[in-house]
Structure formats: structure tokens, C-alpha cells
Amino acid sequence: MAATFIPINLTEPDYLTITEYERNFDLTYWRKYFGDGNWVASVYFSAIYVVCVFGGSILMQQRQPFKLNGLLTIWNVALAAMSVWAFSRCLPEFLHIMLGENGFHNSICEWKDHNHATAFWSFVLLLSKVIELGDTAFIVLRKQKLVFLHWYHHVTTLTSWWVMYSFYEPNQLWYIVMNSFVHSFMYTYYALRAMKVRVPKPIAMFITTIQLLQMVFGVIVNVYTIRTMYYIGTPADCPHRNWFGLKVSFAIYVPYTILFLKLFVDSYIIPKQVKPKKTD
After folding, report:
1. Residue 131 and residue 134: Cα distance in Å, rounded?
2. 16 secondary structure, DSSP code
3. Residue 3's closest CA among 28, 35, 27, 31?
4. What's residue 4's pLDDT?
5. Which amino acids are annotated catalytic?
6. Which of 62, 113, 129, 206 is deepest in the core (most CB within 10 A)?
7. Closest by alpha carbon to 126, among 68, 62, 175, 92?
8. Alpha helices per DSSP H over the chain
């Protein structure tokens, strides 16, 4: 697998003030770094993660659960804050492109007016996929139910983001904006739960809904690419996308859509059976 390396020029937009650390981010270096095969570290992280998750679950079977509420609160507040800030730095470019001429098309097919802030924070989100593996440690140590969707999502998101970073396709702008938006709410919700704050059920339903919509839009942007490149136009009409990226995106977002739809249905559509009370 070799990336079709298309240089991306970063701009100094008039709609956003770029910080010095954002300006100093070397996008080309890191794209080449992952393109040289260093993305494989995500596979090692994932393998270690799976061993620790299921090995830890076995070790915890004969132990009392840890509470960890204080640490869990700090963990979720930190991830929520990072997600909110990343979203606020990446959203301006997304809106600038979407509200411009051929906005939807350009947001998927070409990197136009790509700025330093979005490039830097998308890289932070890329690295955060390793940190977020720690979410599962709290589930294991607190002896909560570990569902397939949870660990599968962590592993596949980490690996796919790292594999695709050297390709640096423009549709990734959709992914980083949607991901940081959803995580802003999700980790805030988890922080409140860790602090024993009773969160109304409609809030939980809203979060599951935007998670599902994230996956649906992930499919939509790739269906649009296929329609543009292979049915009504040519690959030149979507110059910054490639067949490998399409295959990875579909392999990720189609199963995600199915799994999150099942989660939504199981959580909010199908009524839970209430066990009858025992009588003497």
C-alpha cells in the first residue's frame, strides 16, 4: 500500500487567527512519516489493547470493582475539553468551504483553503485515538458490561485514521468535524455521569442519534465520491480521493452505521423486559 502523495498547501485565512504552534505544524513531514509504514504502530497498539481488555476482564472476575469516580471525571472532562477546542478550531474551515461555491463537492473532493489550525487539530485527534483506548480500562476495572461495539469501534477507528493519514483525503475534514462534535457531547455526558449527576434520558438519546448520524454521513460522502468519479464524471473530478481510501471508508462506516442503528433500536425503540417481582 503506497499513498498517492498530493502536496497540500496550508493557508492563513482571514476568518480565523492562527496560533504559532498551529503554524509550526509540519503537515508534510507527518504525512510522509505515516506513509513510510509507521501507521503500523496502530496495529500494535490495537493488539496490546485487545489483550489487556480481555485479559483484564478475566483478572477482574474474582475481584471487587473499583469505583474510580474522581479519576473518571477528570478523564472525561479532559477529553471533552480537547474535543470542544478541536471542534472550534476545525469548524471555521468546514463552514468556509461548505458555504462557498460548490461547497459540498469541494469538502469531499479537493483540499481548498486548507488552514494550519485544521491541519494541527486533525493531527491531535489522530493521536487522541490512542489515548481514548483508556476509556475501556474504566469499564474493565469497574466491572461494567463491555459490548462489542465499544472495543471494535476503538480498534477500527484508531487503525483506519492512522492508515489513511498519509493519503490525507479531503473527506477527512468531515470525519474530524463530526468526530470532535460528537465527542464534545459524549465525554461531557460521561463526566456528568461520573459525578453522579442524573442526566435526562432524552440527552442520552440525542447523543446516540448524533453518533448514528455521524456514521450515516460517513457513508453519504463516500457514495457521493463514487457517483462523481465512476458514474457521472472522471477521477479528475475528485482529484484528492482514491480507490483505497474509498474501500477503507466503506469498510469502516457501513458496519458502524449498522451497529449504531442496532444500538439506537435496542436502547430506545425495543421496550426492555421488566423482570417480575418475586412473591413469597
Report:
1. 6
2. S
3. 35
4. 62
5. 153
6. 129
7. 175
8. 20-23, 27-35, 41-59, 69-98, 103-109, 116-131, 134-141, 148-164, 172-194, 201-226, 243-264
